Amino acid sequence: MYPPRVADPKSLVIASLAIYILLFQPVSYCLWKHGKRGLLGWMALHSLCVIRIVGNAVQLNAYNNHSTGGLATLILQSVGLSPLILGAVGILHEARRARDPTLNRKFEWILVIQYHLTVIAAMVLVIMGIVKLQEGASVGNALMKVGMGVVLACWAILAVWTLLSFRSSQEYAAGGLPADGTKLLHGVAAALPLIALREIFAAGSSYGPSSSFTSSLAVKICLSVVPEMLSIIVLSVAGIRTRGIANKFQRTTK
């Protein structure tokens, strides 16, 4: 079975539900304003907010019905890290295109697609691990560990990719579209440490699910709940600051 964990108090579930409903608004605004070139990043963050809203609503309903929520609740709570990382890499892709008009777009798309497929594969492994553990199969624990290991590697790649992006095309970063790209890049860089904290807790929960550290509610709030919310806020602020980037993209391509 899935390792026992400390259930979130009802007050935390209600607070999380309310906060994600609020965060859904600026993320939806950014998804609308950034247009098709920002679709990858903002759609992923949009999906994350939806997952969290649905997950907390299901958990709240389980509280009201005096049930555990079952497998669906476990899966919804476990898949949030993947869209968060995909959101960050999608916004990084948007920033790189804005900063450097000479960017090799075909090669960039190949890298982005491969990255997405890798993160999605890791998420599938984690979900399969949860299902197997629910069925009592010991292989589920190994699947979860492998999936989380891949996610950790993807964060490291994202961090290096972000740092390298600061080095490229400085001559284009003076104003206009490139300046908006730089603002988005700064947003991704600021969100990376918060995503790292979220990953540390997720990895700890996979590799040591029975430890007092990962089962502590205070640790979960400090290393998982709050960092995830703050990372969405940081990226949303960067998105709102660059809300006119889609129009600037259109002007540069005319």
Task: Give keywords.
disordered N terminus, Rhopdopsin 7-helix transmembrane proteins, 9 helices, 254 residues, mainly alpha
Q: What does this protein structure show overall?
A:
This protein is an all-alpha fold and 254 residues long. It has a single domain (10-249), classed as Up-down Bundle (Rhopdopsin 7-helix transmembrane proteins). 80% of the residues lie in helices and 0% in strands. Helix 2 runs antiparallel to helix 4 (81-99). The model is unreliable at 1-5 (pLDDT under 50).
What is the mean predicted local confidence, pLDDT? 86
Beta-strand portion reads under 5%
Per CATH, the class reads Mainly Alpha
Task: Please give the share of residues in helix.
Answer: over 70%
Give the beta-strand count: 0
Shape: globular
- Number of separate structural domains: 1
Over all CA atoms, what is the radius of gyration?
Answer: 19 Å
The low-confidence parts are 1-5
Which structural class is indicated by helix and strand composition? mainly alpha
Q: Which sheet architecture does the biggest sheet show?
A: none
- The number of distinct helices, counting runs of at least 4 residues, comes to 9
> What is the H/E order?
HHHHHHHHH
CATH topology: Rhopdopsin 7-helix transmembrane proteins
Q: In the CATH hierarchy, what is the architecture at level 2? A: Up-down Bundle
Measured distance between first and last alpha carbons: 58 Å
Task: Write a compact overview of the structure shown.
The chain has 254 residues and is mainly α. It has helices spanning 10-34, 39-64, 70-78, 81-99, 105-134, 139-167, 176-207, 217-241, 245-253.
